[in-house]
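Figure 2 data, in text form.
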Amino acid sequence: MNNGTRNAGGLSGRKIITIIGVLCVVALIAEVALLAGIFRKKGGTTKKPSVTNTPKVTETVSEPEPTEEPWIEDDIPEGYVRIYKTLKSTEYDEQGVSAEKTYRYDEKGNEIFSELRFRSGSCERSESTYDEYRRVVRLVDTRSSDVDSYARVIQYWYDEHGNFSDIIDDNVPSHYVYQYDDRDRMIRKEYYDSILVDTEKNEEGGTNYRYASYLGSVETWEYRGDDLIENYWEDVQNNMNTRYVYTYDHVTGEYTKMEYWHEAPDRLLYFNSAGDVYKISMFDDAGKEYTHTVTEYDEDGRSIRQMEYMMDGSLYNEKTWEYDGYGRVIRIIDGEGNSGTVENKQYDDDGNMIYEEVFLYGELSSKTVNEYDEYGNCIKETLYYYYQGNEEIYVTEREFVAFDVPYELLSEDELREYEKLEARIPKK
């Protein structure tokens, strides 16, 4: 998401870079959190607890005490599902350990602490606090290296329906404000940035900074009945905007999404009744279509062929997918001959991908070999890269721990991982 950010006058170059970096990360976290709230899993809804959260923030940031590994019963309680979390991830290259990340969780499976250490000596830490509904209410990030160090604290507030109401960064004054309609649909999001207006020395000999807040961007959503008909984003300060207009055919179930950049048509997407994109048209600055892409699907809704055409109707590129009897992708061909890319995949009896090789310009470019535990968790991943006769090897090893969590309180990421494990093919 694009948000206008002004350089703070009076700060050193290093602090300017740090502040810009923090704002980018905050915007990314907010966008991920927003998407998790808007796009619910297919075939059902996520139950929202009725409670308003107002977290309290302390000034000190300390490393939490190690938590004991939770005891997991053989029988999963009714209404619960078993999920697996990474305890440790170690990356190796030809020189040895290049990075190591460790995790800690509370008894509900919430990640409360993580630490990533690089061979260079740089370190990144993240500490999170949750409410009783497994919603994050406070996030503390610290980073240190031989170049610079910083810490930031982000607070999250929720309304009575469990929707985000505010996200505030305490370190670099900026925050998001959300509004919803009576059906809990997002209708407005405001991003407030800040500009440095004054500095003064404090009693400890340091510098205090005073900021003024201003409206940086606004995003709105408009609905007609059950249909989203427009989504509009505007950068108030830099006079930029993007608009998405949706049209629906309720007889066929198909709809389109037209994207406008600065009010000029940029891209038009066509969706079938299953919600899959089957055509994309691109437009030049004069609003004239110059290329389009068509995707074909089989009766099971799997993409099998994609063709990209130029304005004169000539075929520019073709991409195809091949599947095995279980519906798993076993081959992807993008382009033709020495000008294309070919991916070959192999699976074990449980449906886990154990081998993948990629050919680029007719030559083997890379291959991946995966190993899994009895629960379908990838415990070792080995990547081989080939370039001009040279081979580079990178290995990632992981350790996991299990938690039993109420299904209705699964996060979007946990739900995807759970459904992926459940979809594995049973052993023969």
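Caption note: The helical segments are 13-38, 412-422.
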